Structures are given as structure tokens and as C-alpha cells.
Amino acid sequence: MKTFFIFFLMVSSICASAQNRKDFYKEAKISLTKPIQSDSLKYEDEKVSFNFFPIHDYDGYYYIEVEITNKTDNRLYIEWENARINGSKVVFSEDRKLFMNNKKEDEVVVGGEKSEKRKILPIKNVGDNGIHAIFDDSQKMNMDIPIIIPIKREDTINDYKFTISFSKYSESEIDSMFAIKKKYYALSKQVKKKMTLQQVVDIMGQYDDTVYMDVEGKRIFCAIVYPYVDIWFDQDGKVSSIQKDDFIR
Questions:
Q1: How far apart are CA 145 and CA 138, in angstroms?
Q2: Are residues 50 and 157 located together in one domain of the fold?
Q3: What CATH number does the domain containing 92 carry?
Q4: Looking at residues 51-74, what average pLDDT do you find?
Q5: Which residue has the higher pLDDT, 100 or 42?
Q6: What is the pLDDT of residues 109-154, one digit of tens each?
Q7: What contacts 223, CB < 8 A, 6 or more positions away?
Q8: CB of 174 closer than 8 Å to CB of 195
Q9: How many domains in the chain?
Q10: Residue 196 contacts residue 212 (beta carbons within 8 Å)
Q11: Which CB contacts under 8 angstroms, 24+ apart, belong to 175-179?
Q12: What does the DSSP 8-state code read for residue 132?
């Protein structure tokens, strides 16, 4: 009976490990390939910057958000009515069949400010009961998504053209990512609530990024970011929670 119990634990562990590795098959490698190569999906010139954000749910579906920053002192206008994605008119995630063909007014962005962050998709991706993803894990082939966003300033209109590429990870890439995930998951188990930032760094190593929030005009430190793990802190600078992907403890 004891031998069977040990065998059961081993099989359960192997199955759980395999399932975690399989999660990577639901992920896509995403990059901006035109007009520049950028894994961060950012592009800017002297007047404007574009930040694209791939939105990935845990069913393996992908959407694209975009945020545009006006780097000048003068206002700009985003001509959403003339914008295109994947050869189709742009619609937003809240659009539905009933009103998706309504004209989209220009969005005004004053100097130094950011546009509203919008989830954009082709009009053909609006169905009777909601919206359909741009890319999902069932697709075996790579996909290039062309995007055109016209920016108007006074009497000048510039068509900014981008290509965002989706591709599947290779087996060797998945092996590497899974090893990194296991490493940081294991290290995070040593982190306890009420630890200081330095204590966390002593365990986890140097972090990749930080998270801040603006509260009543003040920039408040909130979290540090590692691969697959975020460590959140309270107002006293002590660990309040550990977030591993979508799981918080």
C-alpha cells in the first residue's frame, strides 16, 4: 500500500509538471516586425509613440491593445474611422453588430498626454454574440497582422504602418521557458509575507521591472517583477502577496 501511494504521488507530480509545460503551447511569440523589429512592441519618432499590448487569456486567445502618446506640445487627432487592421476597418472590443458600422470620430490627444488604451480588431471579428480573437493557440501557422493608424496634425496626415507577428514557440524554446518558470516558482516559495525588498532580492536575485501606482498625485511603489512571478508590497515596504501568473498566495 505504501509503495502504491509513493507511485501515485510520483505520477501526480509528473502529470502536473507536464500540464504546466503544456501551458506554453497556448502562448505565442509576439513581436513588432515593421517598421522596426521590437519584442517590446513599441515604436516612436520625434512626435508620437505607439505602445502595443498583446492581451492573452488563459484559453489561448489573443487580442491587441494600443496606446498612443503625443510627444509634442500641440494636439493630435487619431483618425479611427480610417484606421485598418488585417485589411479591415478597425473596431473596438466594445463594438457589437448593431452599431459597429457607425462612424468613429477622431480621438483628440493633447500635447504630452496619452490616448485611451483601446483593444482593436478587424470588423469581421465581431460576431453575433461577441468578438473573436485575432490569434489563438489552435492556429499552427505564423500570422502577420498589418495595422494602419492615421495621425492628423493641423493639415497634415501621417499613416503609421505596422506589422505585428504571431508565431508558435519551438520545443527547445518551450524547454527553456519551462526551466525558467520552475526556477522562479521554486525561489518564490522561500519568500514570505512581511519580508523587505532586500530580503526578497537576496532570495530571488535582481528583478526585471517595478510596478508603481499614482495615488493622490504621489507615485507609490507596489511590486517587483520576475519571470512568471510578481512580488507585491504594502505601504510599509513589506511583502503583501506573491503572484505567480494568475495565482496569488
A1: 17
A2: yes
A3: 2.60.40
A4: 84
A5: 42
A6: 999 999 999 999 888 888 777 777 777 766 666 889 999 999 999 8
A7: 210, 211, 230, 231, 232, 233, 243
A8: no
A9: 2
A10: no
A11: 177/24, 178/20, 178/21, 178/24
A12: -
Which CATH number fits the domain that encloses residue 226? 3.30.1450
Measured in whole angstroms, the distance separating CA 56 from the mean position of its chain's CA atoms is 7
What span, in angstroms and rounded, lies between the C-alpha atoms of 53 and 48?
17
Question: Where does the pLDDT of residue 219 fall: very low under 50, low under 70, confident under 90, or very high at 90 and above?
Answer: confident
Is 102 part of a structural domain of the chain?
yes
Domain interval for residue 160:
28-168
- Same domain as 142, residue 119: yes
In this prediction, what percent of the chain has a pLDDT beyond 70? Answer: 87
Name the grid cell of 187. Answer: 525561489
Task: Kindly state whether residues 176 and 114 are assigned to the same domain.
Answer: no
Nearest to residue 228, comparing CAs of 244, 246, 207?
A: 244
Q: Which of 123, 143, 168 is the last residue of a domain?
A: 168
- Residue in 198, 192, 193, 186 with CA at minimum distance from that of residue 229: 186
In a domain? residue 22: no
